[in-house]
């Protein structure tokens, strides 16, 4: 049996800051997905979408 | 870094904090990127791009510029991580996120390294690996050569270290053309020669701060008089160098006028700094030179941007 380490109890202020940080990380990751997509299209051209089915 | 670590283990007094939990707000992480420096990096890099009128997809140019900005921010973040101990004792920097206890040094290090690696890799994929290599070199030069080595060991710190701040136009030109041309080398030279009079003017005003932090800035090592002489010497070099874009054909009529007036303004202020050596007037004119030097560099680059980006270019030569 392994002892479980209880998660730290955050103050309301810490929870608020963590939520805000998580939101910005999520938005940044979303922006990166869009960036990689448009860079791929820009580098390879529209023919990247044409492929045999 | 020992002093910083010791002082940073103390929790902020205003609230209870949970051990092992980040206390940083989003704005604190953004402040780690030195937004004002990042703006200058983006601005000078953009000018480095537009003066060569590259035949490049605007999406790729934008992605490259974004990655140069992120790389610049990452190097600022790593600089704050390394310099947290001296930032804590200088009035100008003691409110930065690490000395203020809002962000732990380890968080800043991880943040800076992640952004550095990410910006270099994405720039390589979006543009080319020459530009990515140059961006990696810029980050390395600023963090390792300037921050870790030169800053605390020689009064020539900002002279040699200034190369890092001058490199963005070269990285930008490499990103959109695949090579390094003389346009960006000239822009590099202007920023490089501009850096000593700009920083030493500030160092004259803030010499007490630097003394307390143990940083060997020129006024603290060679003395204020020698610093004033060197400020004047670099400004005498800078004023004609500011006109080099005109001689090389990418600075137009508006640029020639701005560079001439701005160069004369820099020379007049540097001469005043050299002449006035005592008391409040000496400090005031040094502060004026510091402020004007920012305006001067901004106007040079903004004029090039307007000439090439907005079509105001009127050739002076040929």
Descriptive account of the structure:
The complex is a heterodimer of chains A (53) and B (318). Chain A has 53 residues and is mainly alpha-helical. Chain A has one domain (12-49). Chain A is 62% helix and 0% strand. Chain A contains one helix and no strands. Chain A has one helix at residues 12-44. Chain B is flat and about 65 Å long. Chain B has helices at residues 2-8, 26-32, 35-50, 58-82, 84-87, 105-126, 129-150, 157-166, 168-177, 182-205, 207-213, 218-221, 224-241, 244-247, 253-275, 279-309. The longest helix of chain B is centred in the last third of the chain and has 31 residues, at 279-309. Chain B has two domains: 26-180, UbiA prenyltransferase (Tetracycline Repressor, domain 2, Orthogonal Bundle); 184-318. Chain B has 16 helices and no strands. Mean pLDDT of chain B is 91; it is low at 1-15. With 318 residues, chain B is mainly α. The chains are: A mainly alpha (53), B mainly alpha (318). The interface between A and B is medium-sized, with 17 and 21 residues.
Can you tag this structure with a few keywords?
heterodimer, A: 53 residues, mainly alpha, 1 helix, 62% helix, B: 318 residues, Tetracycline Repressor, domain 2, 2 domains, 74% helix, disordered N terminus, Protohaem_IX_farnesylTrfase (chain B), Protoheme IX farnesyltransferase (chain B)
